[in-house]
Design a protein that fits this description.
The chain is of the alpha+beta class. The chain has one domain. About 20% of the residues are buried.
Length: about 110
């Protein structure tokens, strides 16, 4: 399993990105990010959330604050697992989600 902590201001951990190759040979990625300003990042809870997301295969759009790290992590995964470059069409995915949401709410 590949793991990378995301660091914020003052070099504090604010999130985690994890990836592994599943039994079908596909690369699955999960992430977790701390969300409030006053709380401290809980490493064990963050790891658990990210690993659960990765194993379930549920894709949750990464927060804007970790999007650059997420894209760089996907590039790192492709080198680590020796696979062709992993697609990171996050912007296309985000536009699609917004479009579906607008269609559901407005009609």
């Amino acid at each position: 399993m590949l793991k990378q902590y995301v660091r914020g201001t003052r070099n504090r951990k604010v999130g985690v990105l994890v990836a592994e190759r599943n039994s079908e040979g596909k690369i699955t990625v999960g992430h977790s990010k701390w969300c409030t300003g006053r709380d401290m990042y809980n490493r064990s809870l963050g790891d658990k959330i990210a690993i659960d997301r990765m194993r379930k295969g549920s894709f949750v759009l990464p927060a804007d604050s970790i999007r650059v790290e997420y894209i760089n992590f996907l590039d790192r995964c492709s080198r680590y697992f020796k696979v062709p470059r992993i697609s990171h069409d996050i912007e296309d995915f985000a536009e699609e989600v917004v479009e579906v949401y607008i269609n559901i709410c407005c009609f």
